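Title: Comparing notes on inverse folding

I've been comparing how different people in this forum approach sequence design from structure. To keep things fair, I'm posting one structure and asking everyone to reply with a full sequence. Here's the target:
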């Protein structure tokens, strides 16, 4: 969950896999078997943990090639050929992710060598096609940059206000309970949010802007 103090830009967006999902495809090229796994990841440690997990799970395979893209800009891109000739595995995998406008995504292709060399061009095609096959069945969502707000309410008002906001254009990200109830909100309609809250609370409460945040649309 990324947040900052700038104004949201509704035109900024990127695609990623739906939370909690992964996409898998298995292909065979000249007796070599390729297993592609694509998953949403929040950061570089999570991406590297996914790669290592697949390396351990499929330790009998010869190669565990990977690529991942992170951040809305995106800010991080990495690829690894894991023993294949330079530029024949990780790079074409990364280019597939780029070509589909994806970020916060990691792809790993596990290869069991079948005894026949595929050549440079054959490897590039095999690794790219493995990722393409996995993405063909992926559940994708678009992430948008929106305003990020906090709203403090009396416990007496919290349930009613939360229900009204959820019924409109406001996403309720969470609720904390202490001396007061604190709602964490996301929306691109700041004026409408302020107006609705004031109306619902007879002017007793107003949201505080924390910055911007990226949410699934």
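Reply #1:
Here's my take.
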């Amino acid at each position: 969950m990324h947040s900052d103090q700038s104004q949201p830009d509704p035109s900024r967006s990127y695609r990623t896999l739906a939370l909690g999902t992964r996409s898998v495809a298995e292909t065979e090229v000249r007796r070599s078997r390729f297993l592609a796994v694509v998953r949403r990841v929040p950061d570089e440690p999570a991406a590297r943990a996914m790669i290592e997990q697949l390396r351990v799970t499929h330790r009998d395979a010869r190669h565990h090639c990977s690529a991942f893209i992170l951040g809305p800009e995106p800010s991080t891109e990495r690829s690894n050929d894991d023993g294949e000739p330079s530029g024949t595995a990780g790079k074409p995998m990364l280019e597939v992710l780029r070509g589909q406008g994806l970020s916060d995504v990691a792809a790993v292709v596990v290869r069991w060598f079948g005894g026949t060399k595929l050549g440079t061009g054959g490897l590039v095609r095999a690794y790219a096609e493995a990722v393409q096959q996995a993405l063909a069945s992926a559940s994708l969502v678009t992430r948008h940059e929106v305003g990020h707000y906090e709203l403090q309410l009396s416990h007496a008002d919290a349930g009613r206000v939360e229900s009204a906001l959820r019924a409109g254009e406001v996403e309720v990200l969470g609720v904390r309970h202490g001396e007061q109830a604190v709602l964490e909100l996301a929306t691109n309609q700041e004026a409408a949010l302020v107006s609705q809250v004031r109306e619902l609370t007879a002017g007793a409460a107003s949201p505080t802007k924390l910055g911007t945040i990226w949410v699934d649309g």
